[in-house]
């Protein structure tokens, strides 16, 4: 049986190679050869199926790979970039002067880093998502540069790339790819970030119907001070299907040369100080109608797509940063002596390195799994996965940087070492590209909507008192209680996980089954009003993130064992440790989710917050106060 | 019976010694000043006992040490102890009813007779007179009254005394004193406790009363989540500010003074007083008013009373009728509202009954209140000033018809003599006139400035 499994595994690995190498070509070529294999599976998504208690193993197993040629290609890109970042980039100076020096920017342009994902026909590097993630690992070594580049290509020019017309692409992409023009993304307005209703910038069509006049101002625009090209979202009047005039959001490509654009003073920020963030105002800025991205009134979808696609690379960026930090702190811990012992011999220091290694490993696994899924042919919707990668890696990154600083103690707190800069820089990860709170809502609600659509019928039957459905449910619950083994097919005959990881795979299966029944229970209990239950949604999102992370590490280490990668036993160790840890956390959260609000502390939490917020101050009297 | 008590007393002298010392030490710890004088008394223990229980005749003949300048002393000395002590206070009160005179009466009584004969009656009388002298909320005065009780005498010395009500009249008087403190909300302090222990002993009724007060008072001290300050501001504008903030209970609400109180002399030489106009409005109310349909009128209503301790103030509101059901616009869900996550789920499932924690509350539709104001003169002209002031920040108000629905409420309450400030004190006429005079004073000062 074992042999069978191995054969199955090697087969699937083989298959994965074919699939991903096809994907690589698919992104390059307009015609897609060999697309006949499994393209029908495209509408399936891994994370959404977890809400139904299913593991869609075809999506995540085997771990996506790139072909040898691509590997060589990417390595040839990586080497000079790495050299540039270690030798030419002076991060301390960038942070101190709050400006990236022009020679550094020119170096980045020469390396082609301004057009990583722009197709080769428009002068870019035309790299896939996987390769973009790989470069992100190195670029992230300097937060300011990473944010400048991300604002330029992950969101700034993404609109043209995914929704622009051929003419727009031909006109703008070459200059953007070479770095001659820098792009910016102008969405946020003083009202708030995620609320489309707060967008007040107006675009009014001129009488000759050839230009729009833009009026309004945008805040917190990365690259806003020097960007030559901006993707701007503004309200336009659109006549709806029912003949009623409505204000809808439209995306525009705006050149600074159009005139009427002023940039404010750069914001003085905590971290990523070298990146330029400022207010941009438009005063009767004329934009020709052909510069509308997509269709008039379709800006909302454009904005959503840009935002959703920009997030996945944060995982690899975070892991790149942590890997660097591990190297730096390990050297210190190995040489610094206390009480005649090296720091590395103390348990509490060792734990910090274990945490860092584990986090880097999980982030990396998630990031490349997601990038690989996005690179597959078809138009995969991986926004849920990308959001999970962003949340996990931003929070993991913050913890790891803090632990790394702690290893050095007081030294880490000084400006003589780069740790404080990393700490400041990586704090932004929890905030931008959608705050983690908002992304958790997105993760949980998207899944709930998906599961709800499918389960509504069943739940209604149950509420009506259909005996059959209720009995089935009861039977299942009884089975769970009696300790029936959950088998979702990750191990065993058609298993995709290596036997060395069978225990962890079983834990994942158990969690997934439990999660599925919990989601059903939540839908039964709250229905559509679950939107209001943010504390519940937060736990749902956290469990899902852990489930996806477990899948990623299992998939990655299974592949590593199977093809005999160097140090794969270390990967197995990390994967098993992480899965056990996550298993317990998930069980805790899932148990809380099954309880009512007084039992899982939600009620108390809300009450505390309410009382504090009512008074807008800390409520307790001082411990030294007295009444007589 | 007297014999028996004497015997008992003699026996207990031996027992008393340690307890006296303990009490003295206790007192010395807490109040070094008073303790010193007491030690001198207690050192001659036998004498002290004899003094309390010896023949009254022999002491009466002794001259009581008094200040030569005390003329009241003579008045009091002539009195027989049986006459009511009200007279004592009455006689003193002829010049002025203050804390000082009250204290003097108490001092006089304490010094007159070392045995403090008639102290129970005196204390009852004093308690009754306290509000008159304005010292009913003064803890030191209560302690001084407690100090009138002779010390050590009423402390039970054996289990039988402890079991039965020892010196019931005195104990009851002590309880009554504490009761009055309780009624005025005065919390005893450590000094009171020491006095009670010295007078009645550790497990007496007054001590129990003290303990009960000390148990409940601190618990109730902060029971009111909206405490009214003990000293209300005297300035009508400040008072209006305080009251408006209190009614609005919204931390965002902003108080605007539309007109400061002042007097002016017109060309014809007449004195015109301008009343104060103070209003409050929160951003939420401004938003509501901005959304108000200009075809529907808004109403200025009032005056409504608000009591702050003993002061009653009146306020006016700007409100509208509740929206008729046909004009209500349900805010429709816009799926393109949030860039990041769906604000509503497209599901045909509602909350299960088991998780529906909401109460079944019948909502009574009330009209929105847009703003509130306080003024000392509730006529339409003054209130118009408020409305025109509001218009500066709420431009819609200029297009909305404003109706004044004022009642003559406060005018009747204010009475004839009252020149018409926006508030008045009930009960204490003197205090009221004081404030009116003060207000006039302030106004004239305002003119001078």
TrEMBL record, chain A:
Keyword Phosphoprotein: yes
Ranges of residues in domain Acyl-CoA dehydrogenase/oxidase C-terminal: 297-444
UniProt subcellular location: Mitochondrion inner membrane
Membrane topology, from the record: Peripheral membrane protein
A Pfam family annotated for this UniProt entry: Acyl-CoA_dh_N
Domain called ACAD9/ACADV-like C-terminal: residue spans: 500-617
Keyword tags: Acetylation, FAD, Flavoprotein, Membrane, Mitochondrion, Mitochondrion inner membrane, Oxidoreductase, Phosphoprotein, Transit peptide
GO cellular component, one term: mitochondrial inner membrane
Keyword field contains Cytoplasm: no
Obligatory cofactor(s): FAD
Annotated Acyl-CoA dehydrogenase/oxidase N-terminal domain residues: 72-180
One BP term from GO: fatty acid metabolic process
Catalyzed reaction equations: nonanoyl-CoA + oxidized [electron-transfer flavoprotein] + H(+) = (2E)-nonenoyl-CoA + reduced [electron-transfer flavoprotein]; heptadecanoyl-CoA + oxidized [electron-transfer flavoprotein] + H(+) = trans-2-heptadecenoyl-CoA + reduced [electron-transfer flavoprotein]; (9E)-octadecenoyl-CoA + oxidized [electron-transfer flavoprotein] + H(+) = (2E,9E)-octadecadienoyl-CoA + reduced [electron-transfer flavoprotein]; oxidized [electron-transfer flavoprotein] + (9Z)-octadecenoyl-CoA + H(+) = (2E,9Z)-octadecadienoyl-CoA + reduced [electron-transfer flavoprotein]
Principal place of residence: mitochondrion
InterPro entries in the cross-refs: ACAD9/ACADV-like_C, Acyl-CoA_DH_CS, Acyl-CoA_Oxase/DH_mid-dom, Acyl-CoA_Oxase/DH_mid-dom_sf, AcylCo_DH-like_C, AcylCo_DH/oxidase_C, AcylCoA_DH/ox_N, AcylCoA_DH/ox_N_sf
Segments forming domain Acyl-CoA oxidase/dehydrogenase middle: 184-285
Molecular function via GO: acyl-CoA dehydrogenase activity; flavin adenine dinucleotide binding
Gene3D superfamilies: Acyl-CoA dehydrogenase/oxidase, N-terminal domain, Butyryl-CoA Dehydrogenase, subunit A, domain 2, Butyryl-CoA Dehydrogenase, subunit A, domain 3
Subunit structure: Homodimer. Interacts with NDUFAF1 and ECSIT. Part of the mitochondrial complex I assembly/MCIA complex that comprises at least the core subunits TMEM126B, NDUFAF1, ECSIT and ACAD9 and complement subunits such as COA1 and TMEM186. Interacts with TMEM70 and TMEM242.
Role description: As part of the MCIA complex, primarily participates in the assembly of the mitochondrial complex I and therefore plays a role in oxidative phosphorylation. This moonlighting protein also has a dehydrogenase activity toward a broad range of substrates with greater specificity for long-chain unsaturated acyl-CoAs. However, in vivo, it does not seem to play a primary role in fatty acid oxidation. In addition, the function in complex I assembly is independent of the dehydrogenase activity of the protein.
Entry's family note: Belongs to the acyl-CoA dehydrogenase family.
Protein name per Swiss-Prot or TrEMBL: Complex I assembly factor ACAD9, mitochondrial
Gene: acad9
TrEMBL record, chain B:
Residues making up the signal peptide according to the UniProt record: 1-22
Region (Disordered): 409-449
Compositionally biased intervals (Acidic residues): 426-437
Subcellular localization, as worded in the UniProt entry: Cytoplasm; Mitochondrion; Nucleus
ECSIT C-terminal domain span: 282-407
GO cellular component: mitochondrion; nucleus
Highest taxon, organism lineage: Eukaryota
Keywords: Cytoplasm, Immunity, Innate immunity, Mitochondrion, Nucleus, Signal, Transit peptide
Gene Ontology annotations of biological process type: cell surface receptor protein serine/threonine kinase signaling pathway; innate immune response
PANTHER family cross-referenced by the UniProt entry: ECSIT EVOLUTIONARILY CONSERVED SIGNALING INTERMEDIATE IN TOLL PATHWAYS, EVOLUTIONARILY CONSERVED SIGNALING INTERMEDIATE IN TOLL PATHWAY, MITOCHONDRIAL
Family recorded in the similarity comment: Belongs to the ECSIT family.
Protein's name in the database: Evolutionarily conserved signaling intermediate in Toll pathway, mitochondrial
